[in-house]
Fold this sequence. Notes:
The chain is 22% helix and 48% strand.
Amino acid sequence: MNYSQWSCRRLLVLTLSVLFSTASCENDWDFQFCGTWRHGGRPRTLGVNVSPGCNGIAVSANQSSLSIRGEITSQCRHSRVIPLTDTDELNSAESHFCLYWEPFYDQLKLQFGGKNLTLCPPASLQGSCCTDLSHDRNGPDGEYGIVDGRLKDDLVTDKTLLTYYFNASSTDCRFLAGARLQGLSIIRALAALKCS
């Protein structure tokens, strides 16, 4: 390997390291909270109340309702109660669910009973967005609620809890988007040099 190939590869590795540490490590761009809602098989609803802000979010459940409420969006304001009657798990005593938050797109989705529900549709990039949702505290134990709560693949607890609370941080999304695009441009330029 000659000196220019070595320099090119070294620059490529350095650029990738900076790009991924700036855009990925500092900010969590794909929050995922999953659990099993223990409800006993009764008729149930989904209550949603989300609005702009960055004060965090709470996911709670009881015998009849799964609730998602908080301030984590840039633009989306969504408040309603949805009957959960047309799902794969209609007659079971428990239902698996996953809540997905993509702050870069201001998008909130719930996967429940074999269905994907978009609670906040994708929107254009805003100046700031709410990232790094982290587990704060738990609500009390209960007979009904959320069991086996997980953040991505990490078990929070196997207890049946009424509520999970998550904190959030406000981030300058336009700056990070610019850094990502700038990093991609550098990678393309390096690829054009043909380091091999």
